[in-house]
Amino acid sequence: MEDFTYYNPTKIELGRDKENNIGEYIADAGIKKVLLLYGMGSIQKSGLYERIIASLKKAKIEFEVLGGVVSNPLLSKVNEAIKIAKDKKIEAVLAVGGGSVVDSAKAIAAGAKYDSDVWDFFIHKAQIKEALPVFTVMTLSAAASEMNGNSVVMNDETLQKYSIASVLVNPVVSVINPELIATVSKEYLAYSAVDVISHCIEIYFTASVHPNFNSRIVESIILSIMETTEILLEDPDNYDARAEFAWVAIQGLNGLTPAGTKGGTFPNHMIEHSLSALYNVAHGAGLAVVIPAWMKWYKGQNISQFKRFAKEIFKDSDADKGIEGLESWFKKIGAPTTLEELNIPRDAIDAIALNASETAKVWGFSELYPKETIAHILQKA
Amino acid sequence: MEDFTYYNPTKIELGRDKENNIGEYIADAGIKKVLLLYGMGSIQKSGLYERIIASLKKAKIEFEVLGGVVSNPLLSKVNEAIKIAKDKKIEAVLAVGGGSVVDSAKAIAAGAKYDSDVWDFFIHKAQIKEALPVFTVMTLSAAASEMNGNSVVMNDETLQKYSIASVLVNPVVSVINPELIATVSKEYLAYSAVDVISHCIEIYFTASVHPNFNSRIVESIILSIMETTEILLEDPDNYDARAEFAWVAIQGLNGLTPAGTKGGTFPNHMIEHSLSALYNVAHGAGLAVVIPAWMKWYKGQNISQFKRFAKEIFKDSDADKGIEGLESWFKKIGAPTTLEELNIPRDAIDAIALNASETAKVWGFSELYPKETIAHILQKA
Asked: Does B30 touch chain A (CB under 8 A)?
């Protein structure tokens, strides 16, 4: 087992109606003024916006408001918000939405306490030393951004989709009311399931040190995500399945699965970020296309773990059956598994591979994933 | 799934030699003076004491020292330490040892910030509102006290072994160097394994709401504890198994397994606390005796979960085979499974049952466990 530091100080408040306490949670932290950040207005249609405002007012929290965060969130919006945060002396960022809104909030929180360009953190030119506190009310479960310090943002000038990771931007409190997530479409539920599974399998397959306990936890997460997804596709209002999905999704990327492992990489995310940077596909949809292709290519490099995966998840110890099983399950839940289904032409593969190979450099594994290798993997998609 | 709050702000530093950074970790928290608390002197023999002192001096942390904490830690020692903490204006408690030392440190931390008798917290006469920060360097893994807010202390006047639970006494930083734990005897390794398993199965069997994910996590913990225990009994110096055991033990009682469950109780702990209060047996040894007896008695109240346990842990879906399997495994690793092996006479059962029934009142489930029921369970031991 490799040495590690585990530290996750985010408080999770899971349950019905807990969004109505958000003002109180913020006030308890001694904060008097927040920036309320949200997406494309669904929270106004659902009435959630009004409830959040009412809770802030009740707790005497002042607020500025900024909407318009899109999926695959943009640096331009982050910079717009940082300016507001600095000008209006904002003390915390309250994200109401899914992973994109939370990821943006984290970048804003770091940028608001930094005198230069927030993109410096994403290209590893500077380290986050300080950040505003972040609070969240979740309307989508997948990214686990509600309980980690990760943020992925796309630079809309350079088309680079890069990330930061710092415990300083871990949310202080994240509210997860499964009822708020029940409005998510079946399509996005499927993408969410793929995303959670992707978080788990990256290190599971690529780490050079991977204790048995970590494998068991990953398998538990995958089995529970598959089980609850199938229940929810049949019965979207099943509260218990929705709640379990939400909590399990968090376990997929809150620091538990990699603790004690060594040498794991995130190749599927690396490649997918370029798909969505260049073609603006949903992250989970892009992953569903990349993962089976990557698995077929990578299998021989860790055959014992692929056999284990097949056995534990699909009750068949043939490694290929694990890959086929996962690909079939993606299809069954309605996720795409080919570039064609994403409307990405095959002659785009070179450009995607070039973009991804730049990410590989920033993430420090360009030797493992030169452009040609990435193109070769994408040919299988 | 039941509503819940999950909040565990303890930072875990796991790895070789990390105890040498303890002064730095404490200084990082802005603390200038600690009470160094330890047990019966094994840390002096091993040289750990000197390394801790050196680390504190290097970080310019002043310290007072108090040893002599025993297994089944005593309130009298806690009170002695609280007096020192108040008199010497101690700012934090540094526990170096196993669960008993850490549990004592938490009670001291709460008591040092309280004007009246610390026992008030244990008998639910007062609530913890404030506490000194706690830091730990672990020499034994089992209790998970290094990553939770629980403390069990025995009142040596009344022979009541009671507990507190507050996130305010969660350690700020816990150092786990698996090499420091490698000196634990095979006997105490076995007791530790039993203790971890006990933490997991209490809620697993007794909760009225228990999501599948929680069952999977519990089963993962139990399988990994059994696996690493067997490796360590053969090869005590196996670093990886020791590290995995230590980390898995923490997962057994850090808030993960009960999140989202409802109605779970801790009957085996309740009964065992009376065994060790009256007969001063090791906690894990007492549990190994109580658990099979309790399982035989309780089985019919949750037969489906007992069948699941048998299938997942012992590959046999007969509920009785799960109980027999666990009892046999306890014997195999050298844990006692009868009162006789603990040198507890059968005519002591009434007194133990009476003591435990008092705990049942404090813990709020005296209707489920009147004295007669507890005596009936102990007759099976």
From this structure: no
Contact A211 B244 (CB under 8 A): yes
**CB proximity B24 to A under 8 Å:** no
B200 CB neighbours in chain A (<8 A) are none
Tokens of A283: 């992250």
- Check: CB of residue B245 under 8 Å from CB of residue B267: no
Q: Strands B134-138 and B62-66: what pairing?
A: unpaired
Q: Which CATH code, of 1.20.1090.10, 1.20.120.10, 3.90.1200.10, 1.10.1370.40, is assigned to B185-379?
A: 1.20.1090.10
Residue labelled with tokens 């899109």: A70
Residue at A224: amino acid letter? S
Distance from CA of A320 to the nearest CA of B (A): 25
For residue B2, list chain A residues with Cβ-Cβ distance below 8 A. 15
pTM of the predicted structure, to 2 decimals? 0.97
A11-180 is classed CATH 3.40.50.300: no
Please indicate whether, in this complex, the C-beta atoms of B1 and A220 are within 8 angstroms of each other: no
B213 interface with A at CB cutoff 8 Å: yes
Report chain B residues whose CB lies below 8 A from the CB of A217: 217, 220
Residue A45: how many other CB atoms lie within 10 Å: 10
Q: At what angle do helices B283-298 and B267-279 cross, to 10 degrees?
A: 140
Model confidence pLDDT, tens digit, residues A38-93:
999 899 999 999 999 999 999 999 999 999 999 889 999 999 999 999 999 999 99
Instruction: Show residues of chain A in contact with B196, CB under 8 Å.
Output: none
Is the Cβ–Cβ distance between B271 and B277 less than 8 Å?
Answer: no
CB B294 within 8 A of CB B263: no
pLDDT > 70 in chain A, percent: 100
pLDDT tens string B227-262: 999 999 999 999 999 999 999 999 999 999 999 999
- Write the single-letter amino acid at B353: A
Q: How confident is the model at residue A141 (pLDDT cuts 50, 70, 90)?
A: confident
A12 at B interface, C-beta within 8 A: yes
Report the 10 Å Cβ neighbour count for B17.
12
The span from the CA of B297 to the CA of B283, in Å, is 21
Q: Rounded to 5 degrees, what are φ and ψ at A131?
A: -155, 155
Please state the ipTM of this predicted complex.
0.96
Decide if pLDDT at B274 tops 90. yes
CA distance B349 to B342: 13
User: What's the fold here for domain A186-379?
Assistant: Dehydroquinate synthase-like, alpha domain (1.20.1090)
Give A10's DSSP letter.
Answer: P
Distance set, CA B102 to CA B135, B151, B229, B266 (Å) = 9, 8, 23, 21
CA distance B282 to B334: 13
Give ∠ CA A85-A90-A94 in degrees, rounded to 5.
90
Tell me how crowded residue B265 is: count the other CB atoms within 10 A of its CB: 18
Task: Tell me whether residues A14 and B7 touch, CB distance under 8 A.
Answer: no
Interface contacts A/B by beta carbons within 8 Å? 104
Would you kindly state where each structural domain of chain A is located, as residue ranges? 11-180, 186-379
Calpha distance A105→A78 (Å, rounded): 8
Q: Which residues of A touch B221 (CB under 8 A)?
A: 213
B182 touches A: beta carbon within 8 Å? no
Cβ–Cβ contact B316 with A under 8 A = no
